[in-house]
Amino acid sequence: MTPLRANALALLAALAWGLGNVSQKTILQDIDSFAANGLTSLIGAFVLLPLARREARQVLPSQAGSLPLLTKVALLFTLAATLMQVGYGHTSVTNAGFLVNTAAVLTPLIALGFFRQRPPALIWVASLTTLYGVFNMAGGSWTGVSYGDGLCLAAALAFAVWTLFVGQHVMRYRRPMQLTVIQLAVCGVVCVALGWGTYGLPTGAALRAALPEILFMGVVSKGLAYMLMAVAQQRLTATSVAVLVSAESVFGAMAAMVLLGEALDATRALGAFCILIGVIIAASLPAKAETAAQRV
User: Fold this and answer.
1) Residues in contact with 67: Cβ distance below 8 Å, sequence separation at least 6, in sequence order
2) What residue spans of 57-146 are helical by DSSP H?
3) Higher per-residue pLDDT: 216 or 19
4) Contact at 8 Å (CB) between 54 and 247?
């Protein structure tokens, strides 16, 4: 896979998440956060299962010793996705989008501080430019930290570590489909069980009301998006992918303009421009530097 194709896949993942931002909030009007996260994750795993089976028939590196890393990926994904979904229920879509996307800066910081990976120097420029852009996409103001904001920031931290582990797994074992199916299935089972124990099972009426969001998030925001990201990370570093997928803020704003008639004011236009600059920088990094940074 060429770097250009990998960049395109990461941006497609960002598009899928951007389109699903509103559904992430509105689904909570009908079912609880655990059920929402669990059901959409199980649907995503089910949709990708045929691709994982096809992948298993290919000649790939041995999976010997992969279980500890796979377990870390699945549990971190479950933690991050759950924190984000619960956080969406206690803050605005705008604040949640900004805070979750702080992973664009947290990922290279964690890579350097805990994994001893040295991202290319330009990734710091891309990360900070992107973070400033996401802040402006959120309105360029901060109204105080709420409980939901704290959860979304914790989700960003978990996503940053998860992104680094995903990069290690797919570079080593070359099974992005299998990885995505397993992490979604684990998340789905854990969250459905938590929701059942905490709130009870959703009623049939509630499920019918939430069905459009459940299907869209399950197929697009969970199955498609996380699969694309894992495939892209076979060629790109986790730090670059973290910047690229932060373009979800721009795609979400564009979708709101087209579907909801929302206007893009000067502040958000500046934010979109900064995010695009960060994406361009991340996408232009030399392929050799990308691969070397991933292996450090």
Assistant:
1) none
2) 67-88, 93-100, 103-113, 121-137
3) 216
4) no
Q: What is the pLDDT of residue 237?
A: 87
Q: Which residues of 92-108 are buried (b: 16+ CB within 10 A; e: fewer)?
A: bbbbbbbbbbbbbbbbb
CB 161 within 8 A of CB 110: yes
* Tokens found for residue 259: 């579907």
From residue 146, give the alpha-carbon distance in Å to each of 44, 94, 134, 207. 30, 13, 19, 29
Residue 221: band (very low, low, confident or very high) from pLDDT cuts 50, 70, 90: very high
- Quick: pLDDT tens for 162-193: 999 999 999 999 999 999 999 999 999 999 99
Nearest one of 174, 120, 145 to 285, comparing CA atoms: 120
| Residue 182 token pair | 């397993």
**Which residues have a Cβ under 8 Å from the Cβ of 33 and sit 6 or more positions away?**
82, 85, 86, 88, 89, 195
For residue range 137-167, what is the model confidence (pLDDT) as tens digits?
A: 767 766 656 788 889 889 999 999 999 999 9
**Given 3-state DSSP classes, what are the helix, strand and coil percentages for the chain, each rounded to the nearest 5?**
80, 0, 20
215's tokens: 């299907």
Which among 44, 46, 35 is positioned nearest to 206, based on CA atoms?
35
Which pair of structure tokens corresponds to residue 262? 């929302």
261: left (phi over 0), alpha (psi -120 to 50) or beta: left
Give the tens place of pLDDT for each residue, 67-111.
999 999 999 999 999 999 998 888 777 677 778 888 888 899 898
Question: Tokens 């910047």 map to which residue?
Answer: 243
